[in-house]
Write a structure and sequence with these properties.
By secondary structure, the protein is an alpha+beta fold. The protein folds into two domains: 156 residues, no CATH class; 174 residues, no CATH class. The strands form four sheets. Strands 4-3-2-1-6-7-8-9-5 form a nine-stranded antiparallel beta sheet. It has a six-stranded antiparallel beta sheet with strand order 12-11-10-15-16-17. It has a two-stranded antiparallel ribbon with strand order 13-19. A hairpin with a 5-residue loop joins β3 and β4. The longest helix is centred in the N-terminal third of the chain and has 30 residues. It is elongated, with a radius of gyration of 28 Å.
C-alpha cells in the first residue's frame, strides 16, 4: 500500500471517530432532557401554532430587572421605545431577537435544583445582593405575563450556552444563548447615534457665547489635514493632528443619556458648533452645561451650494471614499433629523470638551519651541 493511501485512510478514520463523538454528545444531552422540557416555554416555541403566533404578536412590553434597576421597552403600534429615555425608539431587530429568543429558549440539560447553588450560575433572585440574574418578562397588550425567565452566566463551555431558570422554579438549566440582555436602557440602542466620517468634513466653526471663534478647515476633499485658521504669526497648533481630532468628532457619536427637548432648554450661554461637508451636509450643534450636566442638540440640513466637488485634475488620493451624491445627502438629512428632532443628548465628556474647544486649548506660542 502506498504511503499516501495509508495517510488518507487514517484521516478518514479520524473524521469518522470525531463525528461519532459529537453524535454521542448530542444524544447524551437529548437523553438527559426532562420529558417535555426541550423548550422552557413549549406553548410559545412552535412557530406553526396559531395561538403561539397570536401571543407573540400581542406582546406590548419587554420588562427587564437586574442589579441596575428595572425598566421597560414598550410597543406603540409597530414601533418600540424606551419610556425612561424620553420615548426614544429602539431598533426593531433587537426586540425581535429577545422575544423570539425567549419564546424558543431551548434547553440542553437540567442543572442544580439547589437554590443555595444558584449563585454559582448567576441565577440568584433579582432582589439578591450578589450573583443575581437578569429577569426578562414578556407582557401582552392586556398587561398579562406571557413568559418570564431569569438569565444567568455564560456557561463554562463558552458564550454559545448559558444558565437560566424560570422564576419561582428552583430547577436551573443549561440553555442555548440565542439572545442578549443589555444591562441598561442606553445599551438597547445602537452603538452610535450617527456617524459623519472625517473624510467628508470640509470645515468646522466653534462660536462661544462671548464671541470667541475657532475656525478649522480643509482646502479640498483630497487634503489629509485640517488646519486652524486666522492664527497670529507667533501661534502654532499644539500638535499637527489637533485639527484632525476635531474633524473626527462626528465619527461614532455614542450616547450616555437622552432627554426630551421639552425638558432641556438651551440658552444664550450655549456654544454653537457648525460642521459642513464637501458633499453638502450641514450639522449645527448646541453644546451647554445645564444644571451641572452637559447636553447637545443636533440639527441637520442639506445645501447644494455648500457642495465642493474634487477637481478632476486634482491630486489622486488612494483610498479616498467616493463622494456621496446630493440626493443621498438629502435622504441622510431626513434620517438624521428623525433621530434629532425631539431629543437632546448627553455624550462622553471628552466629546463635549471637543465641542467646547477654544484657540488656547488647540495652540501654543512659537517661543515655546525656541526655549526647548
Amino acid at each position: 500500500m502506498k504511503q499516501s493511501n495509508a495517510y488518507l485512510i487514517i484521516i478518514i478514520a479520524l473524521i469518522f471517530v470525531g463525528l461519532t463523538f459529537f453524535v454521542s454528545l448530542y444524544r447524551d444531552a437529548e437523553n438527559r432532557r426532562v420529558v417535555g422540557e426541550r423548550f422552557l416555554f413549549p406553548e410559545l416555541s412552535v412557530s406553526t401554532d396559531e395561538n403561539s403566533l397570536k401571543l407573540l404578536n400581542e406582546i406590548a412590553e419587554v420588562n427587564i430587572i437586574n442589579n441596575n434597576g428595572s425598566f421597560s421597552i414598550v410597543r406603540n403600534e409597530d414601533s418600540w421605545y424606551l419610556p425612561g429615555l424620553a420615548n426614544f425608539p429602539v431598533p426593531l431587530d433587537k426586540i425581535k431577537r429577545v422575544i423570539v429568543g425567549v419564546a424558543q429558549l431551548e434547553t440542553i440539560e437540567p442543572k442544580t435544583k439547589n437554590s443555595e447553588l444558584h449563585g454559582e450560575l448567576g441565577l440568584n433572585d433579582v432582589n439578591s445582593d450578589t450573583n443575581s440574574a437578569s429577569k426578562v418578562t414578556l407582557i401582552n397588550n392586556k398587561n398579562g405575563e406571557v413568559a418570564s425567565i431569569l438569565v444567568g452566566n455564560d456557561s463554562k463551555f463558552g458564550k454559545e450556552t448559558r444558565y437560566a431558570r424560570r422564576p419561582n422554579d428552583n430547577q436551573s438549566w443549561l440553555v442555548w444563548r440565542n439572545f442578549d440582555v443589555p444591562n441598561s436602557e442606553i445599551d438597547w440602542l445602537d452603538d452610535t447615534l450617527f456617524t459623519v466620517h472625517r473624510t467628508r468634513i470640509a470645515d468646522i466653526t466653534i462660536t462661544h457665547p462671548d464671541g470667541h471663534e475657532v475656525f478649522i478647515k480643509r482646502d479640498n476633499y483630497a487634503e489629509q489635514y485640517f488646519k486652524l485658521q486666522n492664527l497670529d504669526e507667533d501661534t502654532l497648533p499644539v500638535n499637527p493632528y489637533v485639527g484632525n481630532q476635531l474633524g473626527s468628532a462626528l465619527d461614532n457619536v455614542a450616547l450616555i443619556d437622552i432627554r426630551s427637548k421639552n425638558d432641556i432648554s438651551f440658552t444664550d450661554k450655549a456654544t454653537t458648533i457648525v460642521y459642513t461637508t464637501f458633499d453638502g451636509l450641514k450639522i449645527i450643534i448646541k453644546n451647554e452645561n445645564i444644571k451641572g450636566f452637559n447636553w447637545v442638540n443636533f440639527e441637520a440640513s442639506s445645501n447644494n451650494k455648500l457642495r465642493r466637488e474634487l477637481p478632476k485634475d486634482g491630486p489622486v488620493n488612494v483610498g479616498l471614499p467616493e463622494m456621496k451624491s446630493f440626493k443621498n445627502v438629502e435622504e441622510e438629512v431626513i434620517n438624521l433629523n428623525a433621530k434629532f428632532r425631539n431629543w437632546v443628548f448627553a455624550l462622553k465628556n471628552e466629546k463635549h470638551q471637543q465641542f467646547n474647544s477654544r484657540l488656547g486649548d488647540l495652540t501654543k506660542k512659537k517661543d515655546v519651541d525656541v526655549k526647548e
